[in-house]
Amino acid sequence: MSAVLIIGASSSIGTALAQHYLQQGLTVIWISRSAADFSDLKLLVIQAPDLTGGDWTLHHEFFHSVIEILQQYQVGLIFNCIGWLHQQGEQKLSPEKGLIQSSGALLRKTLLLNLEVPVLYLQGLWPYLCKTPGLRYLQLSAKVGSISDNQLGGWYSYRSAKAALNQWVKTASIELKRSNKTAALVSLHPGTTDSALSAPFQRNLPAGQLQSPAQTALHLAAVAQQLTAGQSGLLLNWDGTVLGF
User: Fold this and answer.
1) Partner residues linked to 139 by β-bridges
2) pTM
3) What is the mean pLDDT of each run of 10 residues along the chain (245 residues)?
4) Environment class of residue 17 by beta-carbon count within 10 Å: exposed (0-12), middle (13-18) or buried (19+)?
5) Cα 150 to Cα 121: distance, rounded to the nearest angstrom
6) Alpha carbon distances (Å) from 176 to 2, 25, 89, 128, 157
7) Are 224 and 242 in contact (CB under 8 A)?
8) Most exposed among 54, 142, 172, 187, judged by the fewest C-beta atoms under 10 Å?
9) Whose CA is closest to 245, among 175, 159, 145?
10) Residue 90: helix, strand or coil by DSSP?
């Protein structure tokens, strides 16, 4: 493997993954609507378009150009780090503690950024996934998307969006196997990472549960390194163990 693609690379985890693989001497292809705040000769930055408009047919040229770059650099590893949890400011949106707090605005934005946009990337890059031997595609998701693991309740919209994302990845992995038996497509829970996404919810975490972005990147890179085609379709924890759907 000589190159890695990181989608949503400006997120805390995405940036840490980019820096990790650059330190390993690999070329990193950075896709984000935000530019990197550091430079490296092996960092290739691609400005992502706004994919929230609803018309998926508008983005064919963007994905075609990305696939050409992936082919040029022989990318064998892809992380999709796109995700959203809360919004501050005038229209504050935050995970529901109870059903009464649910709203259309929260549900729509949660589904858009945690399901629709990641799925659009998966669809857009699908021709490359189907034809690249040994490809590994890790879609960052969340343990709270596991229905069987839900013991606390709450967070209706976020749980539902991540559960749907996990199901989408599982279903796509079955289709992918028909054309590329050597590929691995998985959902991956990164663990609780010290980031803007988790900041409002860190107060009552057990000691040692909160990881730095750099620590998370090391864990996820280790999972990626050990990932096999036989694991395709699974929901994995940050330590590589299998989580139930």
Assistant:
1) 80, 187
2) 0.97
3) 95 98 98 96 97 91 98 98 91 96 97 98 98 98 97 97 98 98 98 92 83 97 98 98 96
4) buried
5) 28
6) 23, 30, 41, 11, 28
7) no
8) 54
9) 145
10) coil
